[in-house]
Amino acid sequence: MNKPSNQVSWDTQQSNELYGVDNWANDFFSISENGHLHVHLHDEDQKTAVSLPDIVDGIRERGLDTPLLLRFHDLLADRIRNLNIAFNSAITQSGYQGCYRGVYPIKVNQQQQVIEEITQFGELYHYGLEAGSKPELLAALAYMHDPDAYIICNGYKDQEFIDLALQSTKMGLQIILVIEMPSELNLILERSVALGVRPMLGVRAKLSTCNNSHWSHSSGENSVFGLTTNQILNTVDTLRDHGMLNTLRLLHYHQGSQVPDIQSIRESATEASRIYTDLIHEGATMGLLDIGGGLGIDYDGSRSDSHSSRNYGIQEYAADIVEVVKTVCDEAQFNHPTIISESGRAVAAYYSVLIFNILDVNSPSADSIPNRIPEKPHPHTMKLSEVEGYLEEANLQECYNDAIYYREEILSLFRHGNVSLRERAYCNSLFTRIMTRIHEIADTMEQAPEALAEGNPFRDVYYGNFSLFQSLPDSWAINQLFPVMPIHRLNEEPTARATLADITCDCDGRIDQFIIKGEHQDHLPLHPLNDHENYFLGVFLVGAYQETLGDLHNLLGDTNVVSVGVKNGKVQYRRELAGDTIADVLSYVEYDTKNLVERFRSLAERSVEEGKITPSQRRQIMDSYRESIAGYTYYESPNT
Ligand SMILES: *Cc1c(COP(=O)(O)O)cnc(C)c1O
Q: Which residues form the Arginine decarboxylase C-terminal helical domain (predicted)?
């Protein structure tokens, strides 16, 4: 590829700093010498770096196009291992006498493949599952048969749910029914008598400790879930009255997801440990303390207590929990409980990467070459064009003010019908050119005028072939920041200042918050598009919560999904799931595709009758309609 000769030299280390790869990638991704982003996978006992652009090329050659969701099961396996090692080494180092048993909350990513892989990778650690609804329990029972792992049942439970759990307990599974509402207890007691099964029970506590995560409303005394201390004691009394206090085995709490601050994690664990020991004082058997989820991910790489980060690591998390529980139990002179945690985000986030191609770029600078000058320009138009003549460093602020003033005046004249559309367009281009020049000068000044300190406001809009609402719902719903960057050309300087727009026609369908050189920025440095060459971006850490929260905005459906590994130095495409077809998404909203074809056919036939098209044109039109219905919901690139 020919590079412009004036290109300043740029190396991959600069890309690394710009996009913060080392900060968020957890050693799973890195940039190679040739400017490709690599993912680190396992090849038997070795770690191998594999090029993401090569993976994408291989998939496209096989016939699946972008947008693509890549899943890396090795990263899931690594995270499960990391979590277990963190707790096990904290336990060994502190002389804790209980053990650790993690469970994976199915709601975080319920895809069949994920549950299958988690139960497989977790076997070594007796890693269990958490089910929050009847469908999740059914999935858990199909995949989790390890008698040493736990299945934790949270959420609302009806009789069917309870019966299923009790009957499976009879078959040797360790299923814990966590009481979240006082009313559940009587039904559980009734059903366990009827079925002749002694249940394993837990209670979910509302803690008073709050945290400042996005999900803080799911913790604290006002949370919708869990029992108040009074309700917990009523539960204990009822169990005692029934001679069932020895079935109470577990205390559960959940602080909310993505807890940014380790201090509030310690506080919650302390409060919960006190409740735990007092339940033993009350006569409950106990033995299990379930600390819920909340272990955060460093999306922005800042290792701070901002919403998109956390000020602790997985080791520190495990060590602090173990230490707090140990201290409280030692004081009360009780055995150390088995610690259960329900980390979902921290386990699943790294697993998936969204890859999409850029369809087009809308660049204001392309609009800065004015059309021909209007015949009788308005005096304000003349004034605006004069600004260019006297523009220099010494009067930058003045030129800035003048340009803005005349541009506003001309807009107002246009609204009143006093200048033409052509003249307005001419002035707009002139204005863009002047402003670009002003910012170029300001960028070279040691102290730029205050109004210009924010930098060039013009952004290139890069249109990505994806739907934010389908693939990155949290980016839209709660302004979650995800790492976004090109997966190739990382040895070239990215000279464009871009924001990203998706292909929904919704003005919310955009990403305009990024982490650049460790700071929040409203633009992402990207490369200018090359002719006849795809430009691919990746969005990272999307394995948790994004895949099944997505909606069908503009009827854009599921993307293609491919699961990737390596063996003997070769990339393996282990599983492919073709994304939704247009027929699929239309059927989700109750259209019958046969009926659609039939309706369109009647229009085509009428057009033949009326002589507007020929019968063979009708055939062509109908073929295109049918082909589209069977196709991908995203923009399909022409086969090249
Ligand atoms: C959502 C949820 C989790 C998972 O939380 P993460 O922050 O993703 O680890 C765990 N437990 C319960 C009860 C939940 O509702």
A: 582-635
